Amino acid sequence: MMNNFLVFLSALLLVSFRTTAFSGQLNNNPNCKELLLNRREAATSVTTSLIFSSLVFGRPTCSTAAVDLSQFKNGPNGLKYLVSEAGNGSGRKPQRGTKVKTSYTLYVNGFGEDGGKKIDSSKGLFGEKPFEFDVGVQKVIKGWDISILDMEEGESRRLIIPSELGYGEKGVGSDIPGGATLYFDVKLVEIGKAPNFNEKQLKWLEEHPL
């Protein structure tokens, strides 16, 4: 709140300075005194209103569109998901360290139909480019690791990932602010072969549980 006050106090000083400078040109002209008075009153009124609004209401925040959560299930640590397409029926799910292929679209402030903003997607102008990674070994955000490990090959889900399982309080760049909830449409396209871990890898997995 103190930052807001300082910002708008600066605005008040700037308006006062400009008004004073302008008045120097008008004071010598008796026909302009009324114009000068009106200008001063308007500037003071507007700036005072801005300061009051800032102090009472704080900084403006981006509105988040309401998302219908009635069909979503609760996952661990605040994660929510909706199975939008069933898998291939094999029942196979990836284990930690398995290379997987996925397709996805990421939104913030809700899904696309809810007014959310699309940030990234594996679906480009010239077609699909699946995103490959080793699941469950911290190659992606934690919300993805948890979700993909629970999905069957061919399955699609909608994910709502809280910031604690996403990019945290730091965010990423200008598109994903700190504390942002992430909205994903994601499909597990393909599961690779199960890996054969050596002793060091097994120890690392044991020391770094999800």
What is this structure's SSE topology?
Layout: H1 2-26, H2 33-57, E1 73-74, E2 80-85, E3 99-108, E4 117-121, E5 123-124, E6 127-128, E7 131-134, H3 142-149, E8 156-161, E9 182-191, H4 199-207
Antiparallel strand pairs: 1-2, 2-8, 3-4, 3-7, 3-9, 5-6, 8-9
Summary, kept brief:
With 210 residues, the protein is of the alpha+beta class. The protein contains 4 helices and 9 strands.
Question: Can you offer a commentary on this structure?
Answer:
With 210 residues, the chain is α+β, with helices and mostly antiparallel strands. It is built from 4 helices and 9 strands, in the order H-H-E-E-E-E-E-E-E-H-E-E-H. It has helices at residues 2-26, 33-57, 142-149, 199-207, and strands at residues 73-74, 80-85, 99-108, 117-121, 123-124, 127-128, 131-134, 156-161, 182-191. Strands 1, 2, 3, 4, 7, 8 and 9 form a 7-stranded antiparallel beta sheet that branches. Strands 5-6 form a two-stranded antiparallel sheet. Helix 1 packs antiparallel against helix 2 (33-57). The longest helix is centred in the N-terminal third of the chain and has 25 residues, at 2-26. The two termini are 38 Å apart.
* Cα end-to-end separation: 38 Å
Major sheet: 7 strands, antiparallel
What is the radius of gyration computed over CA atoms, rounded to a whole number of angstroms? 27 Å
Say what oligomer this is.
single chain
Low-confidence stretches: 1-40, 42-63
Helix percent band: 25-40%
Please tally the β strands and state the result.
Answer: 9
Note the total helix count: 4
Which structural class do the helices and strands define? alpha+beta
Overall pLDDT score: 79
